[in-house]
Design brief:
It is built from 38 helices and 18 strands. α1 packs antiparallel against α38.
Length: 1047
């Protein structure tokens, strides 16, 4: 028996090199498109603006810096400040709605009446206003904006897992430099942002959203005694319970009412203890959506609450049409700085809140003059920053900059002749315009880097397409692989050794790849690209899918469009099958043609299509609502079980548990049918146990999570153990299966005599090429030979290990995704199985040879590609940051990772891109399914290509390693190519529409999710190719040893 040696690494290296080169282009594009704001590392000092002269029509007022503690730039209004940051305190959580009765109020309404009481009792000493946050509304970015007065850039959202020290000038450093003593309590993010700045700190791990009380209780245990001390100037208390309650339960849960009432008591106690020399500032850093999420820019996410109070304040109400005027969050920085007598941070863009400077000791005229001095200092600081920022080569829109210069000229020529009101109006207009100008062009796009990145991605896509449709000349095969590897090393070496001028390096890399293609053109033998009608239409549908990236409406509606295109592609696959049975020269609707068309396989395909329609339709129940989908009504599927009413928890629990059992039963039933669950091989024994044990632990995990809130204080310590055991079991199983991947059963010689006749009657039980040898030996009189083995499971020997790994991965994904999504995963699995069955029937009945069956069509790859996108949406995701399932970070963990956030980031990524992982890893099934199913269900393949080879099933790939290699290369590259094309169009759309109103809300997030999805897809495809080659290698070794044994 002459077995060729299967190239164990050639396919892997080929796909790895092309994917990596494409990712290099992606990184160049991202570096130019997602630039962070240029930070100027200059600081404000007390010596700045030593004298501000304000001339009015009546008198001249001079304010000089006195250089003593508490008076810098201008005299301080307060000696101390108490800052209570109630994370995620939405404005309507704090505002009292008088029209609501207690019984009609939602859990988050009218639970903090302390604000109403203080406003009614002290209308001039208290002020409540909407506090508008800038997107992204993640806690880390909000803290940066609230302390520097600057606007966060979009890419900063990616750093929410890793607190980086703020080096830009900020209010904390200004307070420290002016010898102010700061005490901080609560969220440990403060220590990451400002290490070593605080006089005292009592900080607690903040990332465990399942924990509502640890941080808050920690703050309360120290707040009162810290306020009673004399050695502090600023106290910061950062409460997290409201935010965590929103993530865990949503705002409309009784737990939210309890948490808000607790905060109400805290505010009342602190306000009652506030002294005359102290200002109390209470605010939320962001709001939350109806589901308790945040990160985007919807009104619910950006409209937080701000409350100011001091017994000596004398504030006037600021309202418009009966509604309190909103305050931007960056306005807090200059207001707090001047109120405490410290310089405004250098890069601040906020406008001072004038009310915070008006105290009872000032006359109205003096108060107005003081406000004017403060505005003048604010303008000088912003003006200095804008000119310094522009001097570094940054550009502002010409029309807005001209308006800025006009206002600057107004401040110089005859400005003193204007009234106080008119002067304040000019200052306010200047500050508003400056901020608007920076918002418009904050992220400076590097067009050269973007263009070079797009060029390199485009060339790699062309190279991938060429290799997909070409065949290497056999003699030069290894040499070309090595040269492609050298090309990858050279391109990467450019950026490692010469880390300057990325745009130029990108162009050089594109030129090198182009020259490589040109000089190696003779190494390829072009295969005639024969596209069937179904292939052409499927590719056209994919192209339309990609072109939709240029439309914001399409991106918003992509989940609907993908479902439609998926079903359309499946219908297109069936058209050739129906036409195949049509009799030529006779009307399609004649009785003869109807009889020919309505055969077993055609009717089966109709039922399969109905099943796909039903499963895709049912999966829409699990879609999550985007903010822009105003017609979409959020359902309870994505609400954690603890957030459901008690009467619905049992229904949810047992429904999810039944779906989980189905996830394990379906693959197991298939492997039993194929004969892969016989014998006592290690993989078989483990698969009999591991999935069942994992299901039991997940059931226990869900039960512990669903325990009533007032009983589960101790349960939280144990709820992490079942997931951890499942993680360990899964890793162990995959590792052991990689070492010994075969799931076949070789009957011992003693049992062969009783089994050999059944093998002769049904050779498909044995399957491989060995079948012929064994039967011939038996027929020539060797019936008593004891060395003739019977082997079960060879028809599916390659796919069986993939199916078992898929099963344990599905279990982990379901555990991380949560109980509510489990039925969606089952529907996705059913949809994939039915799509494979349709592909099998179509390929067997339209193929001209066995090679056509082994090598999948473009239409089959397109369907698998669209399934991966459909799965992304059907598991409750969107290309928006608020749709991220942050709760996945705590499955098996309580939130204390000792400074490393790799584990939570990985778990959130596993949840978000689970569909890309599943369909990338199971990609070889597109090649293997026709061979396996054609043997197990021979009626599906018909008799067109009946031969001895067909009965081998997947074992045919062992005897035909070149065909196996070509099929894996083709399916791997074509699938990666489709994802690369979609990412390329998404990047191109983001670039072309970079000045579009919705670029940061729709197009940039869409690009980022596509980019991360492509990387995850590439890794999953490479893992599947490597594992498949490992299976084939072990199978070849086993078959060669067995062949020599029986020959």
């Amino acid at each position: 028996m002459n077995m060729a040696c299967f190239g164990s690494s050639q396919v892997f290296i080929l796909i790895l090199c092309l994917s990596e080169l494409f990712i290099v282009g992606l990184l160049i594009f991202s570096h130019g498109f997602l630039l962070t704001r240029q930070v100027i590392l200059s600081n404000s000092h007390c010596e700045d603006f030593k004298e501000v002269v304000i001339e009015t029509r009546n008198k001249e007022i001079t304010r000089s810096v006195k250089g003593v503690k508490g008076e810098c730039w201008m005299p301080s209004t307060f000696r101390r400040a108490i800052i209570l940051l109630i994370d995620a305190l939405r404005y309507d959580f704090a505002a009292y709605n008088h029209s609501l009765k207690d019984n009609d109020a939602l859990p988050y309404q009218n639970k903090m009446p302390v604000f109403k009481d203080l406003l009614e009792a002290n209308p001039k000493q208290a002020h409540l206003a909407p506090f508008i946050a800038d997107a992204p509304t993640t806690t880390l970015q909000r803290l940066k904006g609230l302390t520097t007065g600057s606007l966060p850039t979009f890419i900063d959202a990616s750093h929410n897992f890793a607190s980086e020290e703020i080096t830009e000038d900020n209010i904390v450093d200004q307070l420290v430099s002016c010898e102010k003593h700061i005490t901080v309590l609560g969220d440990d993010t403060w220590e990451g942002l400002f290490p070593g700045r605080f006089n005292r700190s009592f900080l607690y791990p903040s990332f465990n959203v399942m924990d509502l009380h640890t941080v808050d209780n920690g703050v309360l245990s120290h707040l009162e005694q810290e306020m009673a001390r004399e050695d502090w100037d600023v106290i910061i208390g950062h409460f997290l319970g409201v935010d965590h309650c929103g993530h865990r339960y949503g705002p409309s849960h009784p737990e939210m009412a309890a948490k808000l009432k607790q905060m109400n008591d805290v505010v009342k106690a602190v306000a009652d203890s506030t002294q005359n020399d102290t200002v109390l500032i209470i605010f939320g850093d962001h709001g939350m959506t109806k589901t308790g999420d945040h990160g985007g820019d919807s009104t619910d996410e950006t409209e937080a609450a701000l409350f100011l109070y001091s017994p000596v304040l004398s504030m006037s109400s600021e309202s418009e049409h009966g509604r309190t005027l909103p305050v931007s969050q960056v306005d807090l920085v200059p207001s707090l700085a001047l109120a405490l007598g410290v310089p405004i941070p250098y890069s601040n863009l906020g406008k001072i809140m004038e009310n915070i400077l008006h105290t009872d000791g000032l006359s109205r005229e003096d108060a107005e003059q003081q406000k004017l001095v403060a505005l003048s200092l604010n303008v000088k600081q912003v003006k200095r920053y804008l000119h310094d920022y522009k001097s570094l080569g940054n550009e502002f829109p010409h029309d807005l900059w001209q308006r800025i210069e006009v206002l600057q000229s107004q401040m110089l020529l005859g400005f003193e002749q204007l009234s106080l009101r008119e002067q304040k109006k000019v200052y306010s207009e200047y500050l508003t315009l400056a901020r608007m100008m920076c918002e418009e062009v904050w992220a400076k796009f590097s067009v050269s880097e973007i263009s070079s990145g797009l060029l390199l991605m485009f060339i790699i896509l062309i190279l991938t397409s060429i290799i997909t449709h070409c065949k290497f000349i056999l003699k030069k095969k290894i040499a070309i692989m090595k040269k492609l590897l050298y090309l990858t090393v050279v391109v990467n070496g450019l950026f490692v050794l010469i880390p300057y001028n990325i745009a130029a390096l990108g162009c050089i890399a594109s030129m090198i790849v182009t020259l490589w293609i040109y000089f190696h053109r003779d190494a390829f033998t072009t295969v005639h690209c024969k596209f069937s009608k179904s292939d052409s239409i499927s590719l056209l549908l994919v192209l339309l899918l990609c072109l939709g990236s240029f439309s914001n409406s399409y991106v918003i509606m992509e989940n609907y469009v993908v479902a439609f295109i998926l079903l359309s592609s499946l219908i297109i696959q069936l058209v050739p099958l129906l036409q195949k049975h049509k009799k030529k020269g006779v009307s399609m609707f004649s009785v003869k043609n109807i009889k020919l068309v309505l055969n077993f396989n055609s009717v089966l395909c109709v039922f399969l299509m109905l099943a796909v329609f039903l499963s895709v339709r049912l999966s829409s129940w699990f879609w999550k609502c985007r903010e822009e989908q105003t017609w979409c009504i959020p359902n309870q599927i994505h609400i954690p079980m603890t957030g459901l009413p008690q009467e619905l928890r049992n229904w949810r629990y047992f429904t999810s548990l039944f779906a989980l059992i189905l996830l394990v039963w379906l693959p197991r039933r298939w492997l039993l049918m194929c004969g892969n669950m016989n014998g006592s091989r290690l993989g078989v024994m483990l698969f009999n146990c591991v999935p069942v044990v994992c299901v039991v632990f997940i059931a226990a995990h869900w039960a512990l999570q669903a325990a009533p809130a007032h009983h589960n204080s101790n349960i939280n310590d144990y709820v992490v153990f079942p997931p951890r055991i499942n993680y360990a079991l899964t890793l162990m199983y995959i590792a052991l299966l990689y070492i010994e991947p075969l799931l076949i059963y070789e009957v011992p010689p003693s049992k062969t005599k009783t089994s050999i006749q059944s093998v002769m009657d049904n050779p498909s039980v044995l399957i491989p090429q060995l079948c012929k040898t064994l039967v011939e030996k038996y027929n020539v009189g060797n019936k008593r030979s004891s060395n003739i083995p019977i082997v079960y499971g060879l028809a599916t020997a390659v796919s069986a290990p993939l199916v078992t790994v898929l099963t344990v991965i599905l279990i982990i994904i379901v555990m991380v995704a949560g109980d509510g999504v489990t039925p969606a995963v089952v529907l996705l699995l059913v949809t994939a199985i039915v799509c494979l069955l349709i592909q099998v029937i179509s390929s067997w009945h339209t193929a001209q040879s066995l090679s056509d069956v082994i090598k999948p069509s473009w239409s089959a790859t397109c369907v698998w590609f669209m399934l991966s996108i459909h799965g992304f949406y059907s598991t409750g995701h969107h290309s928006t940051f608020p749709s991220l399932h942050w709760s996945a970070a705590f499955v098996g963990f309580q939130g204390d990772w000792s400074g490393s956030n790799i584990i939570p980031a990985f778990l959130v990524g596993l949840n978000t891109f689970s569909s890309q992982i599943l369909f990338g890893f199971t990609l070889p099934l597109v090649v293997l399914a026709p061979l396996a199913i054609g043997v197990i269900f021979p009626k599906l393949r018909g008799n067109r290509l009946e031969s001895e080879d067909i009965r081998r099933g997947e074992f045919l790939l062992v005897d035909e390693p070149d065909k196996a290699e070509d099929a894996l290369v083709y399916v791997g590259l074509s699938y990666t190519l489709l994802h690369g094309v979609k990412l390329f169009f998404s990047a191109l759309a983001a670039f072309i529409l970079r000045r579009h109103l919705m670029v940061w809300k729709i197009f940039a997030p869409h690009f980022i999710f596509e980019a991360v999805g492509f990387i995850v897809t590439s890794i999953s495809v490479l893992a599947s190719i490597w594992f498949t080659q490992r299976i084939l290698k072990v199978l070849i070794s086993w078959s060669e040893s067995l062949y020599h044994k029986i020959s």
